[in-house]
Design goal:
The chain is an alpha/beta fold. 36% of the residues lie in helices and 23% in strands. An eight-stranded mixed β-sheet has the order 8-9-5-10-4-11-12-15, sandwiched between helices. Helix 4 packs across helix 12.
Length: 373
């Protein structure tokens, strides 16, 4: 084999380590590398121009620069010669794209989170009533998992009161890849929500005739890959969506969010007792808005003890320990930063904050992952 052919073969092998960020597969497996041509540079020893032709799945793909940078790096860092990369970016033909999507769909055929041996931890975040900060807890917990290095996904299963797009600053729609949707990634979390589909008419079409079908679509019509963690932001209460989640995801684990006052905690117990009717296990309780810290003093604005009451009552009713996992402070910044489109546990650069709220959510995430499945 000539030096040029050897280099081309080895570059192809190196590119098998370059992963498409949306599909989670290597660019070689996906057939995105259409050609590699190495040409000696005249007058230079062991130096080659290397042209790589890349075919993206979607024209104008927003992550094309990420892919191009990785390919450039794989070529430029070749150890046995000096390579000068030149990347030509195009898009797949319709026939090639159709074949690729058909192959990906054939691998799944159904809800990917229901397969035997699936390693994804699935946490459904529930509350008995609205207004307790359940969606804020979901968003910040998802951002924490991602910042800790977990491949993280989140589904806004609150079909009528969706809020995850706003909390993550998402204004774009999922990419439609020949009938298969790519989740929108924000702050390291792969997201899908009915709120990403503009217009009430489109939302009704997406929901379909039955609420359960909307969840099935979120699970099976979206390419998730195989995330480490999947969070579901459930609608408040014990309605149809909680039962739909249990039917579609029998391996889901329930986390109940409450606030300290008795009116909230009594209703929160009911959402946890859904576990008596469905196979989900209640993993623990999160008490939100537990206190407001003012000049070193913890002010219990909404009373206290709600999280402990929910924990004790669920432990007694379900017959196994349901711990109080975290008590989150009332922090105006959580709301203000979240409404501005960045989960408050993250810095502007996207790193996990090292102060109190960052540590609290880090401990919560690690506690959940330590629990045996």
């Amino acid at each position: 084999m000539s030096d040029e052919r050897t280099i081309e073969a080895r570059i192809y092998e190196r590119l098998s380590k370059v992963i498409d960020p949306e599909l989670g597969r290597s660019v070689t497996d996906l057939g995105m590398i259409a050609a590699i041509d190495a040409t000696p540079v005249a007058g230079e020893t062991n130096t080659y121009d290397v042209r790589v032709r890349v075919e993206l799945t979607v024209e104008g793909c927003p992550l094309s620069q990420t892919i191009t940078n990785q390919i450039n790096g794989a070529v430029a860092s070749y150890p046995d010669a000096t390579l000068i990369p030149s990347i030509e970016v195009g898009s797949m033909s319709q026939d090639k794209l159709t074949q690729l999507v058909a192959g990906l769909k054939a691998e799944r055929k159904q809800n990917p989170f229901n397969k035997p041996g699936i390693r994804t931890r699935i946490f459904a975040i529930a509350s008995g009533k609205g207004g307790v900060g359940k969606s804020s807890v979901t968003a910040n917990l998802a951002a924490t998992f991602a910042a800790l290095g977990y491949d993280t996904a989140a589904i806004d299963a609150d079909i009528y009161g969706f809020s995850l797009p706003r909390l993550f600053g998402v204004q774009s729609q999922p990419t439609n890849l020949n009938g298969m949707l790519m989740p929108v990634t924000a702050w390291g979390v792969k997201l899908i929500s009915i709120g990403m589909f503009a217009g009430a008419d489109r939302a009704i079409l997406w929901r379909g005739p039955r609420l359960q079908r909307s969840l099935e679509q979120f699970l099976s019509d979206v390419w998730w890959g195989e995330p480490d963690v999947l969070l579901l932001d459930l609608a408040p209460g014990t309605g149809d969506m909680a039962i739909s989640v249990a039917q579609a995801l029998p391996n889901a684990e329930l986390v109940v969010v409450t606030t300290p006052q008795p009116s909230a905690s009594d209703i929160a117990v009911r959402s946890g007792l859904v576990a008596l009717q469905v196979p989900m296990k209640v993993r623990g309780v999160v008490e939100n808005m537990s206190y407001y810290e003012h000049k070193g003093e913890k002010l219990r604005i909404f009373g206290e003890g709600g999280g402990a009451r929910v924990s004790e009552q669920l432990t007694h009713s379900l017959g196994y320990e349901v711990p109080l996992l975290a008590q989150l402070p009332l922090e105006p910044e959580l709301r203000e930063t979240g409404e501005a489109g960045r989960p408050a546990v993250l810095t502007k650069e996207g790193a996990l904050r090292s102060d109190g709220i960052g540590e609290t959510f880090k401990n919560l995430a690690e506690s959940l992952m330590r629990l045996p499945q």
